[in-house]
Amino acid sequence: MRLTALAVSALILSACSQAEEPAPPPPAPGPAPVLAGVDLSKPVRALGTEPFWAVELTGTEMVYSGLDRPEQRAPQPRAVVQGTTATFEGVTGAGASLSIMLAATECSDGMSDRTYPLSAIVKIGDETLTGCAASSAAIMSTGESGPVVEKAQPAV
After folding, report:
1. Which among 118, 66, 64 has a CA at the least distance from the CA of 91?
2. CA distances from 143 to 37, 68, 93, 147 (A)
3. With 0-12 CB in 10 A as exposed, 13-18 as middle and 19+ as buried, what is 94?
4. Neighbours of 26 (CB within 10 A)
5. 52, 77, 87, 154 — which has fewest CB within 10 A?
6. How would you classify residue 50: left for phi > 0, otherwise alpha for psi between -120 and 50, otherwise beta?
7. What is the pLDDT along the chain (156 residues), one digit of tens a residue?
8. 3-class SS letters over the chain
9. What dihedral angle (degrees, nearest 10) is formed by the CA atoms of 130, 133, 136, 138?
């Protein structure tokens, strides 16, 4: 009986002393999503005319603004990229759903001679808006005509 008690005790102790397997490391973040040459991890601006509107994807927020419309903000999720489209979906502080779909198709805003690398469809609440998009840096550095592309940075 004592031998059996010792054997059971040894088994219990050996089970308790087994090292737990370490948790697997978290997956490494994938490469930054790029669509039509636009790095979606950097600020991107979508805009449209009639009515004039814009959405700034800052990296942390989606900021919607429009002529005679209140600005609305929503947290910016990571882009869901499927083939030649990327989608961002959220809810603004005012409770409106905000969805931005970018497609890798050349786009003209219809009012300038600019061509953008992305087309945009923005849904805010019940309204659907169409327009164009590019990196914010490209929009700021491009004149009133030609392709909206980021200028190469000088090597340092």
Report:
1. 64
2. 19, 26, 34, 9
3. middle
4. 6
5. 154
6. left
7. 454 554 445 545 555 545 566 766 655 566 778 999 999 999 999 999 888 999 999 999 999 999 888 999 999 999 999 999 999 999 999 999 999 999 999 999 888 889 999 999 999 999 999 999 999 999 998 888 889 987 765 555
8. CHHHHHHHHHHHHHHHHCCCCCCCCCCCCCCCCEECCEECCCCEEEEECCCCEEEEECCCEEEEEECCEEEEEEECCCCEEECCEEEEEEECCCCCEEEEEEECCCEECCCCEEEECEEEEEEECCEEEEEEEEEHHHHHHCCCEEECCCCCCCCC
9. -140
Q: Which two tokens stand for residue 145?
A: 């005509």
**Tokens 């609305």 belong to residue:** 72
Both tokens assigned to 29: 């973040």
The radius of gyration of the chain from alpha carbons, rounded to an integer in Å, stands at 26
